[in-house]
Amino acid sequence: MKALEKEELVRRILSCEYGVTFTKRALRIGPRKILHEFDLVSEDGKVVGEVKTDKYTSPQAFHSTRFPRAMLDCRYLELADAEKRLIVFTDQAFYEAFVKKAQGLVMKPITALYVSLDERRVEKRTTLP
Description:
6 strands; 6-stranded mixed β-sheet; Trna Endonuclease, Chain: A, domain 1; alpha/beta
């Protein structure tokens, strides 16, 4: 399954979980009102999120690229004017490594989710910070 197909499947799973429809949509964020496209935006804009479909392949890849990119997504989420912020992982090892390393680095509450694409449900959830 390709990354965009995984994103779409996550949108469908979370739409059932939260009882709202999620779409990919650009929102204005931060004091400069820059435009950023989020992977998940509820119809009313109260819930925004990013989906990470990368796999945890090695500690080196995690520390050098995957973790910094996920933290950048968290920064965008912090700037969003939303009631609930989500960062969603489709790989359990990536989710667990991220949650462990991100402790204390996130300033506004962001809920990290592990969504099993095989089981079609949210398997784990942690609120950061």
